[in-house]
């Protein structure tokens, strides 16, 4: 079960139907380019209060990687 | 010049006189025409004196005279006349040497001083890079103040909301997406509007304009000091890690058209936003201005030293002499020469920048290549190009008249010497006889 807020943000940013996004979805498989993943990280950082940078964002391949990062934040 | 003017006056008087006499001597004219046709069979000549319309107006006479020339000759004359004044005075070997030298200097400044902007944390470390961070850009950006510096506390503004999720506004891009943060006249106008109304105006990440109310409208005191508050807020932001966007950059967020060659159908708005988010800010824009600045200063100093000399345009009594016109034309052409040098200087510098972008583009990283563009240089090149075109297509009538005058005078002399115009007059009427 994906965090609703995360699902909403990803689907809105990438303009993808939320029903096509699951935890195992790879962001690049739904059309995300590197620069878009970086920009999403900029948006998620203050909302989820996570500390991000470009390399960290690009290392997160699947939606569940983002979930884990958000859930494990201090 | 004065002699020529006098000579021309004399010729005009003679011609007027001759034409009056001519009207009285149609038979003689017909004889002359006959003789003329024998001498110049390839030129069409009116069949009789009736077709020659004499007018005391010299211009009309010249037009009529031209009317008897064949089209090919007319075309040749027109071409000769038009080309008599070049669009720009030609460069000599010193001018060309300076431009080449300037190209070398601009190249050094472009690669070593401007380079690429120092990246923010949103630049991947693995980014391939041939072009180094510019020394000057790095030095300017190294001076940083925290986000909550003292000036930001004094100059609080309603357009500083940094998270509006629905609009795609984040702390990294809110200054780009709100018009009032633009360090330009556009920013001032929106800054005043937003401060007075207590709102925030801008453009969403998707390119839609918005205005939201963020606080109560300003009181009288805040309204009065709004320009200072706007300026103070910009100053407080410029030295923060994200800095301010380059002037006019917020307008690029309206350009939702595909950027040529960009990955993933990125638009121009996406690329310019990413450029800012990755470190291309107002400070780097200023650092980039060193190149057009060098071109402007070196050419201006060279031109001043080499081409400026005192000219006497007027006499003691402020009377305009024939030399005045020539001096003014000379000055105009020197302006043109400088404009041409500036144009070619900036064209060279812009070409060097294009080369820098291409070299960075070899890495295949579109965004790092985009961040190698020197916007300051291209803006200056665009400005000088407009001036160059404007000057090239100026009205050159006066210059052409003055340039052709000696030739016309020579031809009058030849005409008088080779063709017995005075034979039309009675001997006692011919001047100087």
Features:
heterodimer; A: 74 residues; mainly alpha; Non-ribosomal Peptide Synthetase Peptidyl Carrier Protein, Chain A; B: mainly alpha; two-stranded antiparallel sheet; 57% helix
Provide an overview of this structure.
The complex is a heterodimer of chains A (74) and B (433). Chain A is an all-alpha fold and 74 residues long. Chain A has one domain (4-71): ACP-like (Non-ribosomal Peptide Synthetase Peptidyl Carrier Protein, Chain A). Helices cover 55% and strands 0% of the residues of chain A. Chain A contains four helices and no strands. Chain A is globular, with a radius of gyration of 11 Å. Chain B is an all-alpha fold. Chain B folds into three domains: 2-85 and 398-424, no CATH class; 93-111 and 288-395, no CATH class; 145-240 and 243-278, no CATH class. Chain B contains 18 helices and two strands. In chain B, a hairpin with a 5-residue loop joins strand 1 and strand 2 (209-213). In chain B, helix 5 packs parallel to helix 15. Chain B is elongated. Chains A and B meet through helix 2 and helix 3 of A and helix 12 of B.
Q: How would you sum up this structure in a few lines?
A:
The complex is a heterodimer of chains A (74) and B (433). By secondary structure, chain A is mainly alpha-helical.
Layout of helices and strands, plus pairs?
The complex is a heterodimer of chains A (74) and B (433).
Chain A (H helix, E strand, L loop, with lengths): L3 H11 L19 H15 L5 H6 L3 H9 L3
Chain B lengths: L1 H22 L2 H14 L18 H10 L3 H12 L10 H22 L20 H8 L7 H5 L19 H4 L7 H13 L1 E5 L5 E5 L6 H5 L1 H13 L29 H10 L4 H7 L1 H18 L14 H40 L4 H5 L4 H18 L4 H22 L15
Antiparallel strand pairs in B: 1-2
Q: What's the CATH superfamily of chain A, by name? A: ACP-like
Which class do the helix and strand fractions of chain B yield?
A: mainly alpha
**Any idea what the shape of chain A is?**
globular
Query: What Rg of chain B, in angstroms, do the CA atoms define?
Result: 34 Å
Distance between the ends of chain A: 21 Å
Largest sheet of chain B: 2 strands, antiparallel
Greatest interface (CB-CB under 8 A), with counts per chain: A-B, 20 and 22 residues
Low-confidence stretches of chain B: 48-59, 422-428
Following the backbone from N to C, one meets helices and strands of chain A in this order, namely HHHH
Helix content of chain B: 55-70%
Write down how many β-strands of chain B occur, each being a DSSP E stretch of 2 or more residues: 2
Unreliable segments of 5+ consecutive residues of chain A: none
């Amino acid at each position: 079960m994906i965090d609703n807020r995360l699902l909403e943000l990803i689907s809105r940013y990438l303009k993808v139907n939320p029903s096509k996004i699951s935890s195992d979805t790879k962001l690049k498989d739904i059309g995300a380019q590197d620069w878009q993943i970086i920009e999403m990280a900029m948006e998620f950082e203050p909302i989820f209060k996570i500390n991000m940078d470009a390399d960290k964002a690009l290392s997160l391949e699947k939606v569940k990687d983002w979930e884990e990062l958000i859930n494990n934040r201090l | 010049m004065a002699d020529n003017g006098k000579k021309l006056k004399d010729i005009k008087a003679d011609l007027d006189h001759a034409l009056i006499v001519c009207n009285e001597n149609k038979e003689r004219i017909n004889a002359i025409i006959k003789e003329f046709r024998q001498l110049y069979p390839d030129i069409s000549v009116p069949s009789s004196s009736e077709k020659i319309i004499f007018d005391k107006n010299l211009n009309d006479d010249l037009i009529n005279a031209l009317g008897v020339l064949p089209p090919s000759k007319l075309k040749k004359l027109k071409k000769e006349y038009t080309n008599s004044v070049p669009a720009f005075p030609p460069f000599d070997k010193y001018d060309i040497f300076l431009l080449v030298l300037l190209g070398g200097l601009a190249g050094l400044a472009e690669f070593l001083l401007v380079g690429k902007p120092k990246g923010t944390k949103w630049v991947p470390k693995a980014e391939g890079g041939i072009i180094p961070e510019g020394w000057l850009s790095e030095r300017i950006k190294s001076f940083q103040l925290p986000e909550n510096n003292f000036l930001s506390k004094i100059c609080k503004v309603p357009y500083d909301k940094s998270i509006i999720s629905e609009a795609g506004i984040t702390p990294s891009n809110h200054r780009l997406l709100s018009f009032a943060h633009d360090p330009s006249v556009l920013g001032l106008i929106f800054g005043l509007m937003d401060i007075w109304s207590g709102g925030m105006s801008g453009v969403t990440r998707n390119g839609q304009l918005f205005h939201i109310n963020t606080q109560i409208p300003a009181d009288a005191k805040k309204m009065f000091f709004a320009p200072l508050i706007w300026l103070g807020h910009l100053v407080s932001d410029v030295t923060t890690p994200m800095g301010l966007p380059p002037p006019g950059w917020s307008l690029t967020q309206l350009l939702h058209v595909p950027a040529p060659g960009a990955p993933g159908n990125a638009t121009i708005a996406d690329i310019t936003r990413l450029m800012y988010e990755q470190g291309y800010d107002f400070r780097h824009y200023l650092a980039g201005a060193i190149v057009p600045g060098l071109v402007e200063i070196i050419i201006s100093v060279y031109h001043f030293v080499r081409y400026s000399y005192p000219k006497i345009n007027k006499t003691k009594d402020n009377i305009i002499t024939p030399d005045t016109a020539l001096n003014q034309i000379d000055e105009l052409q020197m302006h043109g020469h400088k404009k041409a040098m500036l144009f070619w200087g900036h064209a060279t510098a812009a070409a060097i920048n294009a080369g820098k972008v291409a070299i960075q583009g070899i890495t295949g990283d579109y965004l790092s290549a985009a961040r190698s563009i020197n916007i300051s240089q291209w803006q200056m090149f665009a400005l000088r190009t407009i001036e160059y075109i404007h000057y090239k297509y100026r009205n050159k009538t006066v210059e052409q008249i003055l340039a052709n005058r000696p030739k016309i005078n020579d031809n009058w002399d030849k005409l008088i010497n080779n063709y017995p115009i005075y034979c039309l007059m009675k001997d006692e009427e011919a001047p100087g006889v």
